[in-house]
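retry 2 of 3: previous attempt timed out while embedding oxa(dethia)-CoA. Reduced batch size to 1 and resubmitted. Inputs unchanged:
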Amino acid sequence: MTRRAVVVGVGHYLPERIVPNSEFEKTLDTSDEWIRSRSGIARRHFAAEGETTSDMGTHAAKNALEDAGLLPADIDAVIVATSTADLTFPSAATMVQAALGMTHGFAFDVQAVCAGFTYALANANALILSGQAERVLVIGAETFSRIMDWTDRSTCVLFGDGAGALVLEAQEGNGTSDDRGILATDLNSDGRYKDLLYVDGGVSTQSTGFLRMQGNQVFRHAVEKLASTAQTALEKAGLSAADIDWIVPHQANIRIIQRTAKKLGLSMDKVVVTVEDHGNTSAASIPLALSVGKERGQIKRGDLVVTEAIGGGLAWGAVVLRW
Ligand code: UT7
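retry 2 succeeded.
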């Protein structure tokens, strides 16, 4: 028998306020047409004043627990993937833990920007496989609206806020790729590319800063690195792209999503796409898409799902799992 980290619940939360592209036409030299055609984004949600990353993460976690039919008492670890935690410390994860009424177990954040959810899943998988946890809440939650430069049309039209969560549970499998659960992970980073996507502030520079991005450079890296990390993760699992039921990519740009699918030899009807409605929600985008994909009836029990993401660092990764 082989221990596996199996998804037993999924949920998400989107803040109430929906902002269509036309909002930006009022203050910037941009258009709905440019934003849609260059990125595939039509609208995004922005958190209300005072609404934080841990608030949204808690809502998503509650929805995932309800989907799993579990209580906070059943969970022994909480991981939040985020680059926009409420405070410098403590972690957003400990705030979610408290908001769920948990006084047991442990909680911590993972910061790998838009690739954060793949890193968090790999960490949760390692905790489960090593026997340090039986059930882990893995959350991606972001308030990127708080680090936007609203005068920079090349970035502020692209991002949104939201949260998604999975409950992973230790279960026994046969050790084959037919098992449910996480089958392989692949993580990468290369800090030489820092200047392509970063926030120009932080604790040790005593400012909050704004997101800065050389979009077309990131685009170039994205297509190549996403296809290759997905291939590597599939190889580690003893599978190939032909075995995929659903690609659930990081939702940054529809053109990146289409080109990556093409590189993998997959048609777009095997891809869960939410970028039109959510924009780029960084580490929240994959769990949001998993939750919406399940709600739409796309992702079903037993399906082979591949998630892949890239972001600031550069950091990128992929996770192969059977739903
Ligand atoms: O999640 C983390 C990873 N991030 C990503 O994956 C993002 C990757 N990059 C992208 O999605 C795309 O590069 C963007 C959507 C950011 C930009 O699309 P692009 O086709 O690469 O455009 P570009 O940056 O090469 O800019 C083309 C033109 C420029 O004008 P000039 O220099 O050709 O006159 C920009 O100034 O579009 C202009 N532009 C805009 N025009 C209208 C940039 N932003 C806007 C805008 N409205 N909002």
